[in-house]
Amino acid sequence: MYYGYDIDENLIKLADKVEEKINKQLVHADKICMLNSAKVLNAFQKNKVSTNDFQEITGYGFTDDGREKLEKIYAEIFKGEDALVRAQIMSGTHALSLTFFGLLKHGDTMISISGDPYDSLKSVIGLEGDSNNSLIKHGVKYEQIELVDNDFDIPTIVERLKENDVRLVEIQRSRGYSQRKSLSIEKIERVCSAIREVNKSVIIMIDNCYGDFVEEKEPLEVGADILVGSLMKNLGGGLAKTGGYIVGKKDLITDIADIFSAPCLGKNIGANLNQNLNFYKGLYLAPNAVKNSIKTMIFASALLEELGYNVDPAFDEHRTDIIQTITLNSEENLVNFCGGIQFGSPIDSFVTPIPAPMDGYPHEEVMAGGSFISGSTIELSCDGPVIPPFTGYMQGGLTYEYGKLGILIAMNRIINNQK
Question: Concatenated DSSP letters for 120-153?
Fold first, then answer.
């Protein structure tokens, strides 16, 4: 059945059984993809995208109509007033950092209401590391409110925001490297509504990494002011070679763009580095790429649970991002699992991942990333900090077939090594 891979017959039978069990969830993923595909196609047509929009613009990039049109499309799809979509934004962390520094000044207070921020953001804020350029070193005050039972602590949030001295509230939609669950659009809508009842002026900012196009709505549709993400994740569609996006209220985008380039130059400058075609086509393919990633993770969740692994979310749980976690309980298991995912990848399948330091992270990381675009997490990958309980964070799968095959090859290798 799977030419050249000699996959264990019992594993193949289990995979067939699993695929029957998850059919309802796979059909639901198709429906979400259709809805988001319609959003994208409509925005392309409304803004009259043409082949002229894919031209390379060099130098200062003052007259890039294609770049400006792409940002209008992002604003329309995500229900914002304006957007910044640039190749010069190098990662999700960079996009988030730009947003923080564009919107927060000395003496301002920001609050994370989803508990601990993602590892690489802790040094941006100043909670870890020794940078002289963190938010805290620049005089920004930081507070955080923990989640309660994987949901917002709305009474505590509301009470704190009654004081009206907070400039920005930050919500991380994805779980990051934590054991909590990711936050659904329904939960975000509920907390945004509660915030607005007591504070009309605070900026509600969403870290949308891994969550784009997973649900029917996006955070700006339910009360958020600014949305931030990476093109090396969902919205790059596996084609964007780099880049990030920020979309939201026009005055906020203007302030952020001044930090991105220079005051008063803002969005008007920045050569497209010949990436317009990749950005347009990646966005066009993104709903389907996200669907395939979701399907791959649903399959992986059901299969790994059958094989005795502790997984989250379960295959039949509501999903709000593309991340699947597997708790592996030892460094050896985590390294072996990532090695299996690498072995099931199209690129560098012969490489063995080992724990190593990684810029921006406080612990050693092990990472399987046999992807066409280095670091692309919309392609099948798995990584995690080498600390207890040794959890692997898996995501991606440009097509369901390749994703499913990659999981089977990985598990077949692990099973064979255990014999």
Answer: HHHHHHTSSS--TTSTTTTT-EEEE---BTTB--
Alpha-carbon distance of 339 to 331, in angstroms, equals: 12
- 29 token code pair: 């993923």
* Cα Rg, the chain, nearest whole Å: 21
C-alpha to C-alpha distance for 230 and 91, rounded to whole angstroms = 6
Helix locations, 214-275, DSSP H: 250-260
CA 208 to centroid of chain Cα atoms: 6
CB atoms within 10 A of CB 52: 9
Peptide bond into 219 cis (omega under 30): no
Alpha-carbon gap, residue 183 to 181, rounded angstroms = 6
Instruction: Find the DSSP H helices in 307-330.
Output: none
- State the amino acid at position 263 in one-letter form: P
* Among candidate residues 15, 367, 12, the one with its CA nearest the CA of residue 177: 367
Q: Give the three-state DSSP class for 367.
A: strand
- By C-alpha distance, which of 414, 378, 327, 324 is closest to 213? 378
- Give the pLDDT confidence of 295-335 residue by residue, as tens digits: 999 999 999 999 999 999 999 999 999 999 999 889 998 99
391-395 and 381-385 beta bridge pairing: antiparallel
pTM: 0.95
φ and ψ at residue 112, rounded to 5 degrees: -85, 120
